[in-house]
Amino acid sequence: MPSEHEVIEALRQVEDPELGMDIVELGLFYDAAITGDDVKITFSLTSMGCPVGPMIQEEIERVVREIPGVGTVESELTFDPPWTPERMSEDAKFILGFG
């Protein structure tokens, strides 16, 4: 059974190509629900019209599937709550000029 830590570390490989940072640092990763060997990732995008959304979703599913012991992977895009820059890590805020 995968751990939440393993899932989060895998998600650090998924970058928003427009911002050049991973989805964990950007605060786009909301939750990992792990039931046995099945993983459901809830994530958001910086905006509803983000053109790279489908690519990010594919990458999320790909990197989580690569974790040993993972069965099925589901990803769910949500805008509830909407993403805001406050969700970013302090490092991401500094690098992107929000600090």
From TrEMBL:
It comes from freshwater metagenome. Residues 5-74 form the MIP18 family-like domain. InterPro entries: Fe-S_Maturation_MIP18, FSCA_dom_sf, MIP18-like. This is Unannotated protein. Transmembrane segments: none annotated.
